[in-house]
Description:
There is one protein chain. The protein is of the alpha+beta class. It has a domain at 2-80 and 179-202. It has 4 helices and 7 strands, in the order E-E-H-H-E-E-E-E-E-H-H. The protein has helices at residues 38-51, 65-74, 163-188, 193-203, and strands at residues 2-9, 29-31, 82-88, 94-95, 127-131, 134-138, 156-159. Strand 3 and strand 4 (94-95) form a beta hairpin. The chain starts with a strand and ends in a 12-residue tail after the last helix. The relative contact order is 0.17. The mean pLDDT is 90.
Amino acid sequence: MLIVDAVLETFDAAEFVQWPVADVPAHRLLALSGRLSPLEVGVAMATLADYNSDSSDRDGAVVDGSALVRRLVEAECVIAPGGLRVRDTGSGVTVAPGCCCGLEDWREWLGLVDGDVPWLGHDPSPRMECVGRVVRLWPDGGDSTDSTETPQGPPIEIPADCLTGILRTVQDELSGFLALVERWADRHVPGLAPALATKLDEDLDIGAPLLKGGS
């Protein structure tokens, strides 16, 4: 069975005090969905606020939660460390996004239908290739996407015809997360809740139709 999650690479929030947060998950990857607890949503929002802050936010000065969220809303473009994680429960292989991969680019996987391979980050450097109507994924295939050497270990194989359905499921999970964010913001920063939901919807490209002229 294949499980594809939209994951956020969280930061160490042990000293974060602007709002309540859960413990950082194993491997620091938090799967975003409508099933997160309020404390897990808090971790996600703390991560986004930290990742999109500038150097002046890290000078040791205490910034209240409303100010952090307001800066997020006013950011030119919110970026989210992470991406899509693919797990094959049959083989036990997991392919997670590498460093510097961004969840905001999750729709680039749609290009696989036409053989366009998205960048999946580095260190590790997940390897992806299209062979006929099958997409193959390895957890780490080296830094060179042009390498002709086959990575070690079995790949995860995804039929290209299944990609749109998989990405619709990812979109549904992200929409569920977005609903939780607005509910969370209603409690912690009520005056910013609608603007925050709109900002994340636009910059993480959540709600727009997946395909032109359709859903």
